[in-house]
Amino acid sequence: LLASYGVPAAVAQFAATFAASMIVSRAFAPNQQAPTTQQNNIRQQVPPDPTAGIAVVYGDAYTGGRFVDAVLTTDQKAMYYVMAVSCISPNGQFTFDTTKMYYGDRLITFDGTDQTKVVSLTDAAGNVDTKISGNLYINLYKSTSAGTITSLNGASAPNVVMGGSDIDSTLRWPSSGRQMNGLAFAIVKLNYSSDAGTTNLSPITFKASHTLNGTGVAKPGDVWYDYITNTQYGGAVGSAFVDTASVAALNTYSDGLITYTPTGGGSATKARYRMNGVLDAGQNVLSNLDKIMSCSDSWMAYNAAAGQWSIVINKAETAAFAFDDNNIIGEIRVSATDITQSVNQVEAKFPNGEARDQPDYVNLSTPSGLLYPNEPVNKYSVSYDLINDNVRAQYLANRILEQAREDLIVSFNTTYYGIQVDAGAVVSVTNSDYGWTNKLFRVVKVNEASLPDGSLGARLEMSEYSAAVYDDFDITQY
Predict the structure, then answer these.
(1) pTM for this one?
(2) Rounded distance, CA 17 to CA 12, Å?
(3) How far, in whole angstroms, is CA 10 from its chain's centroid?
(4) For position 18, what pLDDT does the model report?
(5) Where are the beta strands (DSSP E) in 390-435?
(6) How many Å is the maximal CA-CA distance in the chain?
(7) What distance lies between CA 477 and its chain's CA centroid?
(8) Mean pLDDT over residues 356-373, rounded?
(9) Contact 246, 312 (CB under 8 A)
């Protein structure tokens, strides 16, 4: 049943058969390296590829388009190109910012009257080229899932732009039938001119905004829910199999403010998490969900008893359950991360929104006073594809460094009392042999287990927890 809703069969079967509750993304172990390859190809204008998925913009992002149609006029003096820019959620609000669009590396200026007509291009040095005027037209549209098209910068419908007498009658768009359902797209007309340099189409970079649920932003809980449930570009998991309470909890936590020092000095705040980036809908669903979770320092969990996917927020918690010699059965297995694998440097890659989402980096290191004797350098590389500012990138990278100092991995069997524990919960453990008194751990997985006396119990796998990981970090914006 789960596999039929777009969830990989192997993961679904493992979760349902062996684990009552488990984390299925973003493993807790500090030596678990995250993906380092940023999806730059989906932000670029690339040659036509019928196998490529259409990207999904969340929040604000710069991106290119996918060619879906192209027509040469009958007089062979102009080309029409149709480019799909982004999928649009049924609960999404999509716009283009025509003041921040680029043709090649030059800023586009549209005509004040005919807002589809490009009248000039301005390079980084401020040089203005007006030869482009009258040779490049960009019509912007969005379409609902039902196929209702809205023009965002002009008055002509797509079938009018692509249905003129200059196009062969067999190639014209009909008045109905090409509705580009659920897409933001552009129709570009390029007149051939060697003087204007329009002998071929240069890459167009669109500044797009796709917010959700009328909030004016893309909150991580809303993004996760949209992607995991969407039947066109996401996981196609039925809403009944998704824990909406955890979605609301992540949104609320994301709205919390973090304090930082702006580039000009002083003090400022911003919401803890916001999604601003692009997902490649052609990639593995769990991989994209993991990217969303990484950018909000959370995990995705599956609860077999409830039959639901949910979000586990990595934040300060109080102990939900207590374990000691009265309910721990048998041995306690304890291991620690090898010193050669203990993360002490983080290189976080992110698209910098102040530089048209070009790749940028945050590099942080554990202070020398906190390193173990003879601890070697161990760099952790991570890519935050949906974070476009260095303040949030620094905030997330520092959490990784602090979490890496908590390196104990613990597992034990317990009575059936333990089956109530959900993956992601924080529990306390008291044991005199290890010198633990209400020591806190976060649960990674809960399994049903057969105990030595034949009764049914639970086995818990846990990672060391410290509330100090969630202290505010002194961030200076650069």
Answers:
(1) 0.85
(2) 8
(3) 23
(4) 43
(5) 408-414, 426-431
(6) 88
(7) 22
(8) 90
(9) yes
The sign one gets for the Cα dihedral 18, 22, 25, 26 is negative
Taking CA atoms, 321 is separated from 116, 324, 429, 438, 439, in Å, by 62, 10, 9, 10, 12
Rounded CA-CA distance 423/460 in Å is 9
Residue 476 DSSP code = B
Answer whether residue 27 shows pLDDT above 70.
Answer: no
* Beta bridge partner(s), residue 443: 462
Q: Give the type of residue at 143.
A: S
Contact 139, 156 (CB under 8 A): yes
CB atoms within 10 A of CB 474: 9
What angle, rounded to 10 degrees, do the helices at 220-229 and 285-294 form? 170
- DSSP, res 199: S
3-state secondary structure 170-193: CCCCCCCCCCCCCEEEEEEEEECC
pLDDT digits 0-9 by tens, 289-332: 999 999 999 989 888 878 999 998 999 989 999 999 999 998 99
The confidence score (pLDDT) of residue 249 equals 96
Neighbours of 318 (CB within 10 A): 8
User: 417-426, pLDDT tens digit by residue?
Assistant: 888 888 888 9
Cα–Cα nearest to 153, from 194, 93, 113, 192: 113
